[in-house]
Write a structure and sequence with these properties.
The protein has 19 helices and 14 strands. By secondary structure, it is an alpha/beta fold. It has 3 domains: 5-205, Rossmann fold (3-Layer(aba) Sandwich); 211-371, P-loop containing nucleotide triphosphate hydrolases (Rossmann fold); 407-482, no CATH class. α3 packs across α4 (81-94) and α11 runs antiparallel to α17 (373-417). The chain binds adenosine monophosphate.
Length: 484
């Protein structure tokens, strides 16, 4: 087995590219896959991102490029545009001293601009299946002479419904091309695809998960939903991260969180699927250049992101499935660096967290959050707001009770006020009736209060303050008694 890149017999220009990137030795997937690919075999590589799989297929492709050939020599299909851009970038870096031309085709960018680029000789094309097919149908791209076809993250492509597009692309490539398939998992759909289009491929399986996760310290804090943003800002102040990716589950939550962090003076930007391709690329460039520190993203936008210097990944919202958790966590601890993955969860999500720990064979410990200045201030403010809310509610109830009382006593008062000639004892009788009415009213009110208090006692056990608050207005109502 190869222990150093030198044993593969790569061209010197390619070795220079590897050195520029400071890759010291091949990763396990590279060690196993590169010799087989160089022999010209079709290969299935089962490996997660973060294992070095891109270079595992890219190095032999670059090494085998034929100089002077004017045709596209390799086609790489990927599930997302981010991954496509990223692979193209890695090709450019590795092939820097070879004068290689790589083109990333993906949805969302101006097709004409991409086509004009095709006038130069392009040796390698990377793209999502839909966009590649688009070019194929227009006749703007010809894959009739490619030597290698790579299906990267094949399971994701199947998951995203690309099967038909992928098949169509494959059948338009020459029969004798080499097919390399990389996939984190091997569902039946991927096996069928491999069976149909690959020639007895060896299957290399790398248990990359544990390796990646080992370098990543994982823990979580249990926090209330209303405390989450303040808790997050405190965590960020305590952790002092370098670059951080923060995941939220929806576009709206990403936008809201970004706005809140910006209000707190943090350099945060939002990345989500609906942004234009240009904007997304621009944001990623700025993030890589450390022009801002916090990238707030949804899963779909962050798929395949590989940014050096991401020291922290934070799950502001917890994902629902293990795959997403692994994917998110894998955005840190890249290329041998250490990283931290921190999740903010509700008490109910502890079970889900335990599932993630089991699936990743990692220890994800619960830590108690020391409230910092933001959480303290936030909690105080929310308590004040709550108190003001209930005070207003009590006032409103007292007012309504007073109005009700007025309504009930109005006829008697009217009668008392009227300067009608009545028998001498009649006014006294009316006053007595009024007193009786008031006594009866008080009795009813106390009974209602007692019932409300009993109910509040029950609900207080389940933590609801609202009913307990309801008991009080009555006592205020007392003070109004006989105000006229
Ligand atoms: P990938 O699995 O292709 O997403 O690669 C994960 C990361 O590992 C990328 O940042 C690569 O640049 C980096 N990488 C690939 N091969 C090596 C290597 N042999 N040594 C160190 N880092 C590597």
């Amino acid at each position: 087995m190869a222990k150093s890149f030198a044993t593969f017999g790569f061209r010197p220009e390619l070795m220079q590219g590897i050195q520029d990137l400071y890759y010291k030795e091949p990763t396990p997937i590279q060690e196993e896959a590169i010799p087989l690919i160089m022999e010209g075999k079709d290969v299935i590589g089962q490996a997660q991102t973060g294992t070095g799989k891109t270079a595992a297929f890219m190095l032999p492709i670059l090494n085998g490029l034929q100089e002077g050939k004017r045709d596209i020599q390799a086609l790489i299909l990927t599930p997302t545009r981010e991954l496509s851009v990223q692979i193209a970038r890695e090709v450019e870096k590795l092939g820097k001293h070879m004068g290689v031309n790589v083109l990333s085709l993906h949805g969302g960018t101006d097709i004409e601009r991409q086509l004009s680029k095709l006038k130069d000789t392009v040796q390698i094309v990377v793209g999502t299946p839909g966009r590649v097919l688009d070019h194929m149908k227009r006749g703007s791209l010809h894959f009739g002479r490619i030597s290698t076809l790579v299906l990267d993250e094949a399971d994701k492509m199947m998951e995203m419904g690309f099967l038909e597009d992928v098949e169509q692309v494959i059948v338009h490539t020459p029969n004798q091309r080499q097919v390399l398939l990389f996939s984190a998992t091997m569902p039946d759909s991927v096996k069928r695809l491999a069976h149909r289009f690959m020639k007895q491929p060896p299957h290399i399986k790398i248990e990359g998960k544990q390796k990646t996760v080992e370098r990543i310290e994982q823990f979580y804090y249990v926090v209330n939903q209303s405390d989450k943003t303040d808790a997050l800002v405190d965590v960020l102040e305590q952790e002092q991260p370098y670059l951080t990716i923060i995941f939220a589950n929806t576009q709206v939550r990403v936008q809201q969180l970004t706005a809140r962090l910006q209000e707190n003076g943090l350099q945060a930007q939002a990345l989500y699927g609906d942004l234009s391709q240009r904007k997304r690329e621009q944001l990623m460039k700025q993030f890589r250049e450390i022009r801002f520190q916090y990238l707030i993203a949804t899963d779909i936008a962050a798929r395949g992101l590989d940014v050096e210097g991401v020291t922290h990944v934070i799950n502001y919202d917890l994902p629902n499935d293990v795959e997403s958790y692994i994917h998110r966590v894998g955005r840190t601890g890249r290329a041998g660096e250490r990283g931290k993955a921190i999740s903010l969860i509700s008490p109910r999500q502890k079970n889900l967290m335990a599932r993630f720990a089991k699936a990743t064979k990692a220890t994800i410990e619960e830590r108690i959050l020391e409230p910092g200045r933001h959480l303290d201030a936030g909690r105080r403010q929310r308590a004040e707001e709550r108190e003001a809310h209930y005070a207003a509610l009590r006032q409103q109830q007292a007012k309504e009770e007073q109005q009700q009382k007025e309504k009930e006593f109005a006829p008697v008062r009217e009668a008392l006020k009227k300067k009608v000639k009545v028998k001498p004892g009649y006014k006294k009788k009316l006053a007595r009736e009024l007193a009786e009415l008031q006594t009866q009213y008080e009795k009813n009110r106390k009974r209602a209060e007692a019932i409300a208090a009993r109910k509040a006692g029950k609900s207080a056990k389940s933590g609801g303050p609202s009913k307990a608050g309801k008991g009080k207005p009555g006592s205020r109502g007392n003070g109004n008694r006989g105000s006229r």
